[in-house]
Write a structure and sequence with these properties.
This protein is α/β, with parallel strands linked by helices. It is built from 19 helices and 13 strands.
Length: 519
């Protein structure tokens, strides 16, 4: 394996500078075709019509990263092999001569949340200096699938350090490596997390496709605040093999894109069984023959039964721009054939939405320690081999002021656990009961195809049961900060959710490019 590059601001921009020095005739062709806001269908058509090459696509994104990333902090590291991969894809397209035989993701750039492992020149750090220079034993399973589809790994996207599982005090989008990620619509607004960089990058047109991970809201929330589409698949639909864990009980990997169709194409590429992740054995039975792209139907809303839980998922303040927008969206959905069942209730919803009261925290910290220790032991090279080593590393090498500002309260709570004992088992039983008697019972009894909720507020409801959700852009507040709408359902409901989300997107066309407002 090639020697890893040191990862810091100097190396990132020196790498970019070296790559940018190779750029040549891109600008002439790019005047004929605009990459900004282009869908995968647009890009593939441009490739087919020879308006664009894969190299020019990569060059464009590298230029945009060089221009915008110093303010956005969305990309931790770019892949020094990206242009080589692009040239290889260009050669393959020319050699095959039959574009229909190529994957939709052939030559398409992808940024990975920096906890998704790659066996290449890129680091996998979870945003922490403790993992800088570590070497993973193999590509993560989702990355292997992307490579099989001939996608180009452009680099690693920023995230909340350790996927928000280090400290309750750290702001959304913050990590030790690279600092604070910024919302491209309103720079002072939250980008949310933990897949913040994945959402920022797609929203700001630094890449076409990104992958994020979600344990509890980490795809749905940044998708909502950055006006992009995020698919949180049911747990096990995508493999967690080679991905730095929080808790395997709730962790899932999903795509973040600017359009529902793009996210679905990416989802098709990464789902499937992995013998290293037993959760995929059960979940893979839900994958439809022919994949998920067949559910991109403009008439998919007809007859869909959609439930609304207003309390406490919808605020009732009169004159609220968001509420007005949602009421308008509901009418649009009705006009497209959807049926609404209004004013529903999820049993014990107030408890479910509280990380502590629900008991979600108790097993999560214990599972985190077990899963992380196992993951670190599997690394070929690493400065740390267990959670205790990470804590010690931070105490030794971190700035004291930073430790005081962002104390390692979650780390310390996890390190104090000793496996899955009676308290953890009792909490797990309670979570199962809350999910069974709440979300699951409601959808079964009311025969709902999906629940419709604002933003990401339903995230904890989906997290404890491992259920899927799709967030789609729904509007912008008075300051220009985006907000989304989430469609969620039971395990195996991804086809229906895609029909609903795609139908909503096509009927509303809400998304607009970012404005980079300072306030």
């Amino acid at each position: 394996m090639a020697t890893k590059l040191p990862l810091n601001h100097a190396s990132l921009y020196s790498t970019l500078l070296l790559i940018l020095l190779t750029l040549s005739e891109s600008q002439t062709i790019l005047k004929k075709f605009s990459i900004k806001e282009a869908t995968l269908h647009d890009l593939q058509l441009a490739f087919k019509q020879k308006q664009l090459t894969y190299r020019q696509l990569v060059e464009f994104y590298l230029q945009e990263i060089s221009r915008l990333n110093p303010n956005l902090n969305a990309v931790i590291e770019v892949n020094p092999d990206a242009l080589y991969q692009a040239d290889k894809a260009d050669y393959e397209r020319m050699a095959k001569g039959a574009p229909a035989s190529l994957s939709v993701l052939h030559g398409i750039t992808v940024l990975l949340k920096d906890k998704i492992g790659t066996k290449d020149m890129l680091n996998t750090t979870a945003g922490s200096f403790a993992l800088l220079g570590s070497v993973v034993p193999r590509d993560s399973r989702v990355v292997a699938k992307l490579r099989n589809a001939s996608a180009i790994i452009l680099g690693k996207a920023s995230l909340n350090e350790w996927a928000s599982f280090r400290s309750f005090n750290a702001p959304a989008g913050w990590r030790a490596i690279g600092g604070q990620g910024k919302n491209p619509y309103v720079l002072s607004a939250t980008p949310c997390g933990s897949s913040s960089g994945s959402a920022i990058s797609v929203a700001a047109n630094l890449v076409a496709v990104s992958l994020g991970t979600e344990t509890d809201g980490s795809i749905l929330c940044p998708a909502s605040f950055n006006s992009v589409v995020g698919i949180k698949p049911a747990v096990g639909l995508t493999s967690r093999g080679g991905v730095i864990p929080v808790t395997p009980r709730q962790d899932t990997i999903g795509p973040i894109c600017r359009a529902v169709s793009d996210a679905v194409y990416a989802l098709d590429a990464i789902v499937g069984f992995d013998y290293k992740d037993q959760a995929t054995k059960e979940a893979s039975k839900y994958i439809p023959r022919g994949g998920y792209k067949q559910f991109l139907k403009t008439y998919g809303l007809i007859g869909k039964r959609l439930g609304i839980v207003r309390n406490p998922l919808f605020t009732t303040g009169s004159g609220s721009l968001q509420i007005q927008a949602f009421e308008s969206h509901f009418q649009t959905l009705r006009n497209k054939g959807a049926v609404f069942i209004n004013n529903l209730e999820i049993a014990h919803i107030d408890i479910i939405l509280n990380f502590t009261l629900s008991g979600e925290a108790i097993p999560s910290v214990a599972e985190f320690k077990l899963a992380l220790n196992s993951d670190l032991k599997d690394l070929v090279v690493s400065p740390v081999r267990a959670l205790a080593d990470v804590i010690a590393f931070n105490r030794t090498f971190s700035d004291l002021e930073m430790i005081e500002e962002f104390p390692e309260d979650i780390f310390l709570a996890a390190e104090a656990t000793n496996g899955i004992g009676d308290n953890e088992k009792a909490a797990l039983l309670n979570l199962s009961r809350l999910s069974r008697d709440g979300f699951e019972k409601l959808l079964w009894e009311k025969k709902l195809d999906a629940l419709v909720t604002p933003g990401f507020d339903v995230a904890s409801v989906l997290a404890i049961g491992g259920f899927p959700g799709i967030n789609v852009p729904a509007g912008y507040d008075k300051k220009g900060v985006p907000f989304g709408i989430t469609f969620s359902g039971l395990k195996g409901s991804e086809p229906k959710l895609i029909e609903i989300a795609y139908g909503f997107e096509q009927a509303t066309k809400v998304r607009k490019p970012p404005t980079f407002q300072p306030f």
